[in-house]
Amino acid sequence: MGCLYSKTTHHHSPDDASSPPDPAKPELANGDHHQGEQDHQVPAFKEYGLNELQKATNGFSSDYIVSESGDKAPNVVYRGKLDKNRLVAVKRFSKQSWPDAQQFVMEAAGVGKVRHNRLVNLIGCCAEGDERLLVAEYMPNDTLSKHLFHWDKQPFPWEMRVRVAYYIAQALDHCNTENRNIYHDLNAYRVLFDEDGDPCLSSFGLMKNSRDGKSYSTNLAYTPPEFLRTGRVIPESVIYSYGTILLDLLSGKHIPPSHALDLIRGKNILLLMDSSLEGQYGNDDATKLVELASKCLQSEARDRPNAKFLLTAVAPLQKQKEVASHVLMGLPKDTVETPTTLSPFGKACARMDLTAVHDILLKAGYKDEEGAENELSFQEWTQQVQEMLNTKKFGDIAFRDKDFKSAIEYYSKLVSMMSVPSATIFARRALSYLMNGQAELALRDAMQAQVCIPEWPTAFYLQALALSKLGMETDAQDMLNDGTAFEAKKHNSWRK
Fold first, then answer.
1. What's residue 414's pLDDT?
2. pLDDT of residue 401
3. What's the pLDDT score for residue 69?
4. Which of 142, 173, 185, 194 is catalytic?
5. What is the pLDDT of residues 180-206, one digit of tens each?
6. Per-residue H/E/C for the chain
7. How far is CA 402 from the centre of its chain?
8. What is the pLDDT of residues 329-341, one digit of tens each?
9. 122 has which bridge partners?
């Protein structure tokens, strides 16, 4: 079901009295995972009226969408604000999902009973007419995928990677005690960070994701072997998926389990490790986490450990339990002031100077995606890599030479070939569409660029430019304001 929230911190208000950081939230001791079961100011589960959720999301406005894939996701997630200014995430299922309203409410109510401070707790649902909606706590600090694969200032610290592994094991173990031992599609998009920077596991993954009660995995590249054989997820499948998250944490990449196991069997563990973490961990600790991943990824379900084993294995690897997560991650606890002046790129978009925008995009190149390039390196294993490189080269040449029609053709071909989308490609194609007078297509691509890099000022500025071309001046100004806010945030983080 993809990522839950992508446009995050600029919508969150630290003055929100209804969801303050919990000063009593314990830093759990090794194995003492049931201390966190208390309801930490989470409202009781309830059924909401459709009108209430429409109002909370401004009529399910596209501006409130926070799904990684935007409105292209089969089940779209919106940011919402309920009474007392409580920020929530509202998941709207497709019309074909859950035809039986009573079954949906019963399933949601069952998940809503599961409470833990390592979960993004479910606080409500709605089933009116064809609408099926879930309401959950709002997480303001992005997903594990964003922090691991798309960082721009610093790589995700080793100690936080260990903390993610431990906290998610706590969440899974608690779900088992609540007889919720199947978690659907466990991956890096399902791990979100709260206002304190603590990792939490989305409760949405506890819901059955189908019309007929079967369980489905959408992370098909790294699907548990038994799912490929039977089409069903079993409790041991969750452990396999946990193993793929360990690979993400160890390598900083989406790495196929088969390749990782080859490296492990060949004792080439250093080739598996994220090179940006050099000096941050002890070899013994890394080896233990690699060995745990290997156990989780066994092809036979019966050979994998259980959640309690995960807790026992990961707990001793935590070495900085007294340091708050937001400190380890370098997350600011204050708000970002919007600057009064636009950057050169923002100014060019505001005055709709397409030539200036083209010049700035050319000079910027692909530098804003440097944090994501590691993720693309594994494409070198495919036979398509040379064709992809040639297509990108021809597209870049056409873009440089202002042959925008050809640039659109090459970049469109490249997008269809790439398993990992490129924000810069979408940005360049967006400008090419604008140069061809196709503002609606340009807006779509600028939004896709934002999906790739949720806080990228360029994506917001290009959306502002496209919206201006479409005569939507108020929305365009809002996008300019968002772009300047993120630019200020980036500059402030550099100064710190």
1. 86
2. 92
3. 63
4. 185
5. 989 888 989 899 999 899 999 999 889
6. CCCCCCCCHHHCCCCCCCCCCCCCCCCCCCCCHHHHHCCCCCCCCEECCHHHHHHHCCCCCHHHECCCCHHHCCCEEEEEECHHHCEEEEEECCCCCCCCHHHHHHHHHHHHCCCCCCEECEEEEEEECCEEEEEEECCCCCEHHHHHHCCCCCCCCHHHHHHHHHHHHHHHHHHHHCCCCCCCCCCHHHEEECCCCCEEEEHHHHCCCCCCCCCCCCCHHHCCHHHHHHCCCCHHHHHHHHHHHHHHHHHCCCCCHHHHHHHHHCCCHHHHCCHHHCCCCCHHHHHHHHHHHHHHCCCCHHHCCCHHHHHHHHHHHCCCCCCCHHHHHCCCCCCCCCCCCCCHHHHHHHCCCHHHHHHHHHHHCCHHHHHHHHHHHHHHHCCCHHHHHHHHHHHHHHHHCCCHHHHHHHHHHHHHHCCCCCHHHHHHHHHHHHHCCCHHHHHHHHHHHHHHCCCCHHHHHHHHHHHHHCCCHHHHHHHHHHHHHHHHHHHHHHHC
7. 34
8. 888 764 333 334 5
9. 136
pLDDT-derived band at 287 (thresholds 50, 70, 90) equals very high
The single residue listed with the structure tokens 């060995």 is 291
State how far Cα 37 lies from the chain centre.
Answer: 25
In angstroms, what CA-CA distances link 426 with 364, 459, 473?
14, 9, 22
What percent of the chain lies above the pLDDT cut of 70?
81
Is 100 known to be catalytic?
A: no
Kindly report the average pLDDT of the chain as a whole number.
81
All structural domains of the chain: 9-329 (1.10.510.10), 344-495 (1.25.40.10)
Are 229 and 251 in contact by the 8 Å Cβ rule? The answer is no
pLDDT in tens, 418-453: 877 788 999 999 999 999 999 989 999 999 888 888
